[in-house]
Amino acid sequence: MEFDPGFAIVEDYDAMSFSYGEGVFGPSVERRRLDDIRKSLRDPNADGPEIPYVVAMDVGNERDREDLVSRHLLYGAMIYSAGRIGEEPVRSQGHIHSVSASCGMSTPEVYEIWDGEAFILMHETAHDDPGRCFAVHAKAGQVVIVPPAWAHYTVNADPTRNMAFGAWCIRDFGFDYDEVRAHGGLAWLPVLGEGHEIGWVANEAYDKNELVVREARALPEFGLREGVPIYRQYEENHELFSFVTNPQTAKDVWLHYEA
What we know:
The chain is mostly beta strands. The chain has a single domain, classed as Jelly Rolls (Sandwich). Helix content is 12%, strand content 35%. The chain contains six helices and 20 strands. The protein has helices spanning 34-37, 65-71, 178-182, 230-236, 242-245, 251-255; strands at residues 9-12, 17-20, 24-25, 30-32, 53-57, 60-61, 73-80, 84-85, 88-89, 96-97, 109-115, 117-123, 133-139, 143-146, 151-156, 163-170, 175-176, 188-192, 198-202, 211-215. It has a six-stranded antiparallel beta sheet with strand order 4-5-7-16-11-14. A four-stranded mixed beta sheet has the order 15-12-13-20, with no helix packed on it. The relative contact order is 0.19. Belongs to the archaeal-type GPI family.
């Protein structure tokens, strides 16, 4: 991969799966099928990869397993297919993180791109008025954070190749799809142009709010260092991602968050 994840995990794009090196734990991947995400697509009947993406939840170094469990912290790894789904790039269907019993709140997610490039589309709510809307473009080694209770999905921003990334989330994670599905997806939908560039089309089921498209940025307000794998940063400071499992500790940041 273009960027070192910080532990011994290897992608197999042909098999759409991961393998784990010595001292690393991880499950078999869960496969998301095209039929699973059709209701959120601009064209629900579009053709595309049968397996748009795969997910391996709960991966990491064996030496960290007990600490991760005690902190309710979970690391996941994902692979997205190359190609397109009709006029759209390969993407997830979109959701909101439901309230976790361990902290009594919706929780954030911390993405790190390992291979390829991504857009993370996010907005404040999935109500008719979605609030502020951001599409954040991230390349290998860059980090993007989605705040608690924000609706979001992930896009493979380069249809010519696979994309892989890791993410920190809470261990008792859950997804709320109700309002997203009631609106036929999120407030903005990605559309591929002739040169594989990505444009954005408003979902008319929402009130139209401006979409801010920007590059991923440094995140010093969370104490993160650029260019250092977020898994390795956790190993160096086990408290660093406490804002993931206890979002209230960063309440002032979430209030005025700029993606």
